[in-house]
Amino acid sequence: MHIHRFEKVWLALALVFILGLISTIAYGAVGPGIEMIDAEGGTVDPQNLDETEFADPGVEQVGEDEYEVYVVAKQFSFEPGTPANGVIRVPANSEVTFYVTSQDVVHGFEVVGTNLNTMAIPGQVSKMTVEFGDAATYGIVCNEYCGAAHHAMEGRIVVVPESEYEGPGATNATSGNETTTNASVAAAQQVAGSATEVTA
Amino acid sequence: MTDDPTDGPTAPTDDGAASSGETDHDAERARADGGALEVADGHAQDEHAMPPTSSLKRWFVTTNHKDVGLLYIATSLSFLMLGGVLALLMRAQLWVPRAPGTGPLSAMAYNQAVSVHGLVMVFWFLSPFAFGFANYVVPLQMGAKDLAFPRLNALSYWLYLSSGVLLFVSFFQGGTFAGGWTMYAPLNLPAFTPSVGGSAAVLALMLFVASVTVSSVNFLTTMHRMRAEGLTLRRLPLFSWTILLTVWMMLFAFAALLAALLLLSADRLLGTTYFAVNGANGALLWTHLFWFFGHPEVYIVFFPALGVMAEVFQTFTGRRIVGRKWFIAAMVLVALQSFIVWMHHMFLTSINLEIKTLFMATTIGISLPFDLMVFSLIYTMVKGKIRFKTPFLFSFGGLLLFILGGITGVFLGAVVLDYEFRGTYWVVAHFHYVMVGGVTALIGGLYYWYPKMVGRMYDEFLGKVHFALYFVGFNLLYFPMFVAWETPRRVFDYDPGMTAWHQMATVGAVVLGASFLVMIYNLVTSAYRGEVADEDPWNYVTTAEWAVSSPPPLENFPGLPSYARGTLEFLGGSSSALKTVDDDAPAAADRGTGAATDGGAPATLDGSEALAASAHTAEEVQAGEDHHASHASVWPFLVGVGALLLLLGLSGFTNATWSEGAMGTAHQASTGVGAVVTFGALVGMAREQFVGPSGPYGESWPFEKVSNMKTGMWIFLVSDVVLFGAFIGAYVFLRFSSGWIAWEPIPDNVVPGLINTYLLLTSSFTVILALEAAERESRGGVVASLVATVVLGLGFLGNKAIEWEHLFTDKGIWIDSGIRESTFFVTTGLHAAHVVVGLLITLYLILRAWNGAYLDDAAPVEHFGLYWHFVDIVWLFLFPLFYIL
Prior knowledge:
The structure holds 2 protein chains of 2 kinds. By secondary structure, chain A is of the alpha+beta class. Chain A has 2 helices and 10 strands. Chain A folds into 2 domains: 1-33; 39-195, Immunoglobulin-like, CATH 2.60.40.420. Mean pLDDT of chain A is 72; it is low at 31-39 and 171-200. In chain B, the strands form 3 sheets. A 3-stranded antiparallel beta sheet of chain B has the order 2-3-4. Helix content of chain B is 63%, strand content 2%. Chain B contains 25 helices and 7 strands. Chain B is mostly helical. At the A-B interface, helix 1, strand 7 and helix 2 of A face helix 4, helix 8, helix 13 and helix 21 of B.
């Protein structure tokens, strides 16, 4: 059976393509590419968050001015973050590392008016380190469409003056300025441009 | 599969036509492969009598590319209406910020409207609209009588219409898909979007992708194999160039989407766990698969618009495009680069910064070739003499909008800026400027080719009114979105401070929508009352569709088209001196007489003189005159009906159970009837005597010596390679996510897999024996070898059935037991489905071989062999991956 030269070239290209496709994904998975295993944020089993550091999400103090915040995004709230679950309270002039994951579908975690923004993907932990300056209130919105009440999924970060900060344990106290969704987004916009530094 | 019994003999010639691009032609050059034609047997003639255009029946049976083109255009405009109405509903909801449940749409209705608006516009309107023109114009520009596989072309259309109908029906199946057009996992699973309509929408998209794949194979075969003599790729008109690159991108990109949708359908219908929350990184897998398709898709929908711009700019500036060679090179570059930018849609995932930086570089880099094209178009205007007709206004408007859309997109391409803009109306405004900018140019194309398609001119004044309303409405709709960019996307609730901008946008939406009413009034009334258009109403044209009457005759040309002498001539018929767009030829306008000098003006050429310059022999031309191709087949329509019923039925199957009660019964009945109709129609199509267009006509680079059918088969297999590549890639990706070592192969025993490997390899060998026997003209040998193939294939399936039975009962696992089980059963199941299809084709071959077929022409056996060997090679990858490693 005669095989034309172009057919041979075609065949070779097709094989190269299939191998290439596999190898790019393999490289992305194990190489320095996509952080899935042993990556900085790491991975969690989204169905067993109770057995991880996300079992009791909230703010933890880890250094003099250093805090870690574990946030679980779920349909349709942030825990902590959404006022019903307690807003996130951190002191001014602190360095805060966020660990964000989702327990159901893909969500967004965007601090409005800053470039602190990530997808919250089930199974993935997004790690971001931020330096907060002066006292302010930031809105958090979910910007990945996540279902029927996506529009209502929002939360708040309250940066309180150092003198008024009562420690991480006070997280669950609401900030007292609960208003409608629109008002909180507007409030966050007023602080847009405040210095935040994302090193994630 | 059996669409092309008439393919010319492909005996090798000295050098074929590969080098015929330049001016000097060797008239004596022998060509055995060009234009050889088979005369249809008289029996087939009556069955394929073509009803007139006034007959409704014609539109159900036609396979003619021009009819199919018109069907595509009409249908896609209907989907524009559907998508437009959804958009207007959304804009009405956004008139003021509202609490959920108030206003015209409930929260879920708004989410459905957003999702389906995106799906309809991107899939069911944009590409099919462009492919209406492609169907109509490309064969004319290439000098072909039709596409290589006319029935497959009709099949593409009917599958497209069926998929659209299914999508529309999904609204009434408990609500359609409401997870956004990107269908991110795991929101796309029944656990979060449980409605039957959600499954129907996913299946509808899958059917659409099947239609696109059929179409890609058809166009690629046609465009590479069936160009007129002298029409080298270098001389191919720019619109045809954009379509050629579009279908190449489609072939690869849509195969990846098909893989994603097959996996998603398995998850929704059978309950596998690829994208489930308890899986490993299914959410990230979906984004990779979707955007590997999704970014090339941007260029897939935009390239035809670019082609329209290029044609319209040339016609209405009276000038050949500046830097034609570089324009084409830039497009080729974009087409290639479009496959390495997809991760810029994933900057907010946990991909590390090095990779993100790389993709930022490729993304921003892809704007450079576009700059070249934009400058080329602008410079063409500068050097030409512009006539402001409606098609030009729309194309020029499209260019302006695209420039703005492109520049705002570069912002999003930068990682850090993307963190700011992500998920806001900036993104919405950006891609609407790009996508609807493309639509603007395509509307220009509709006005441009309207006289060709209808034979009458549209009303120029109303056309300009349409443009004015359209352009004002467009900018009033989308520009405020840049200003109000902080509005979060896909949300009907927003900051009251932005109300004014959103109200402006809503007003703009109404104006934009109303402008289409002007267009429809204009186009419908002009079809009856418009001024009669001659073959070339624009007076300056460079492409061949303007050299024939408006509308063109059924078989397009008065003779065999040839560019052998640098101008278009019809061998054996009247001639028309239309200059080719040759890189070395002076542009018509440069000759100082401006418009109205060149194309379309018929020049009476001495027929024998023209023929002498051509490599075609007089006999070939004569045969072309006598050739009577088929133009009608009802089977593609019936396949479409069957596929619609089948998928409509399957949508009621969720997590491996039918929906409850009477609806469940209805779904099961629909599935059964649909399966029977689809299968019966496919058999009918295979058995039908159908005489496709002959060909090649002269230029077939790079496939001079490969027949149409074989070329088509290879191209199809390439898309199948991508499909399996994506399946295997998904498996590897998920396995790495779970820890490669910790993941044991599902079968506890490699022996059944090993036996199956031997069975398949042996069956490949028996197919080769069948081909040898056919070439030796041994009927018994062909039948015996094919029967042996079937026996070996059944052995493979039987062995697999025993193995699966063992896994299901003895080991107690099921396809939904976990991600490990899902990947095993789905990937090897897809391969088994390929084996089943192969065996069905083998049975058909055996029946025909028994009656003595293939002895004089072994090509069908060879083409089947290609498929079968491919299926075997896939198993050689699957066996180690799923049994050993």
